[in-house]
Amino acid sequence: MSFDQVKWAEGTSEHTAAAVNGLIGEIPVVGTVGGSLIDSLKYEWVEGVKDEAEEQGKQESSKNFAAGVEGTNELFDAWGRERNVGGDPAFTHAKNEAGEGFTSGRDAARAHLKP
Questions:
Q1: Could you count the other beta carbons within 10 Å of the beta carbon of residue 9?
Q2: Mind giving me the DSSP string for 43-54?
Q3: DSSP state of 59
């Protein structure tokens, strides 16, 4: 689910609630209670859509992170095999630092992209 779908859900819920509230608002006693119920249902539905979008984003982010770390490790492993330095402690340290750099860079980018 995307940001566009969340915006659609928010707009749809507002217009639907306004229309239904306009109709039931004319009914004495029921109008006030019904309007409150409609507003509550609208809120719950929009929150559900937002939660679903956030969960989907987290899953996609996790997959992308795993692929990035795996790609970084594969790159280092191939380089190490070509130079026959795979067991060298300096190589292991460099590979670990590359992983840390990938994670730090990703976290920094996420912090700057948050609204």
A1: 20
A2: HHHHHHHHHHHH
A3: H
